[in-house]
# Entry
Amino acid sequence: MNNIETVYKKSEGLTDKYLTYCPGCTHGIIHKIVAEVLVELGILDHTIGIASVGCSVLNYDFFSCDMIQASHGRAPAVATGVKRVRPNNIVFTYQGDGDLASIGIAEAIHAAHRGENITIIFVNNAIYGMTGGQMAPTTLIGQKTTTSPNGRDEKTQGLPLRIAEMIATIPGATYVERVSVHNPQNVRKAKKAVMKAFTIQKENKGFTLIEFISTCPVNWGMTPKDAVDWAVDNMIPYYPLGVYKDKTVGEEK
Amino acid sequence: MSKVLMKGNEAMALAAIKGGCEAFYGYPITPQNELPEYLSKHMALNGKVFVQAESEIAAINMVYGAAGAGARVLTSSSSPGIALKQEGISYLAGSELPAVIINVMRGGPGLGGIQPSQSDYKQITKGGGNGDYYLYALAPETLQEAVNLIKEAFDIADYFRNPVIIAVDGLIGQMMEPVDLDQDIQSWDLKPKTWKADGNRKNRDKNIINSLYLDPYDLEDHNNHLKAKYDEMKEKHQRYELINMKDAEIVVIAYGSVSRIARSAIEILETKGIKCGILRPITLFPYPEKAFKELPKTVKNLLVVEMSTGQMVDDVKIADEFQHPIHFYGRTGGVIPEAQEIVDKVLEIVGGEKHE
Amino acid sequence: MAKGRIIIDTERCKGCNLCTFYCPVNILKLDETTTNSKGYTPLMTTDPDKCIACGFCAIMCPDSVITVEKFVKEAK
# Structure
């Protein structure tokens, strides 16, 4: 006789709502990682998530915890406001590259600078998805978007911003890692990184940011698998994966 | 209770603490800096939260977050900083969050000047942010009134689930007057904040704080729900003061510091045999239209006096419903009118029956 | 003999075809004979007996469409 053991099922950290992301968009994978970590750490029912503006604007409907929707770029400030009055709750933001690296760069830097005990989940897909494919601060040189139709030109549009590296230089940041979700092994590594970040928050050890290399099949004009391959071949060389800051190194386990 | 001599900004800060403020998020800007400075020391002493944010935009968003999590929260700024906060204020109103905002007005537009003004009237009363919303706007004239209204403002904000703005000018922020921080204030019937997203989900479904309603019919319903609050404000919560109305032939309409200057002006006018009253709005929104129904029949002219180029005149015209000729006198740019200037203008009106 | 099986929520599947590339035993494809109520071509298994319950497909699915179960022999 065979018994059945469930190896994988949908996380309780996600609601029943149908995800509004495009087919094959890696937002869905990243949502699962965050949701699973919140459940596994036993913190789901006292977490407050801060939704931002971009493709993920509706994720206040997708995570099972309390959610506050923030205006474009301001999620780290909203998170600061919440965490300061509710220090025993877990607070995270979930932001895309326009939200965090463009309009919200000051709020992200200053939350790190103040060492706010929050976790930022940063989804970098080198383009503005929700608004139809415009250039992002993280768009690569030569990458064509609707506002860089001839490819990003360094002379007039600057070089892409490396957020993980930049945030890591801020003394107040405790843990910064860049991860990817392009195959199951990397999804597992990414989950470990998110687990570490929320554990650091749980232990009141400061500011954490996990940057995800992510895809945008529709605006990149590719199939979901081709988009994942493109991210590996083009984004990862410019945005290398790895731990950029870890103040907890050397601490007793 | 005993009175203490305090600077306006500091008295307002202490009033917020007395009103149950749990968190302050703000940014330095002249002429209100003593307010965050006072709170940077005293919030910590009281076990409360103080954060100097990186900008006024960040500050209003911190307010939004803390309010969403159910806390009593304050921010303060001056005109250019309040301009920056408009999006956040719209989000507060749209998400039905309580918060208290103090605007210590200075000359504008743009960077303007650092001297007192009342030139944010239309920004405050007609809405500076996007969408169909209003702020409950209070305009105290003395530090005592400011203290009492700020203490009450946290209750008002909780009652309406809407931001409340305290509109003072730089004079009120900077002057020193004796204040009693422990006077009784009007009480409001407050319900528990079952809507707050404070992460404590053990006994309830999740809460979402949000102003996005993609379905237009849903958004229309939501806007009508908000409008019902503003209608209640207009119907039941106008505040004003009528001063020296007996047999008045002319009434000055002024608020804040200007109404205090007008009080001196009417004493001078009394010595000249001119009966001049003052209609002092205390709420700028809802505008105290009811006060105009109480004007004595002897009144022949209205004179609006403001530290602006006349932002309140339209509201006076609407409230007066063409009952009286309406005149205006103002100084702007940070210039403060003297009582004699108001006297001269009144004499010009009643003497020569000059119409605007 | 299958080591396990997957259960596919065909109504939630968006036919994105990401998972099919990660199956180590190559038994996943989109079922071109049908569409779900949203108009997507959902996933199917071509040869369920070969399933090793590795979970890779479920891990990569952005929409949590796949539940993976392993067959575990009862202890005697």
About this structure: Residues 4-236 of chain B form a domain with the Rossmann fold fold (CATH 3.40.50.970).
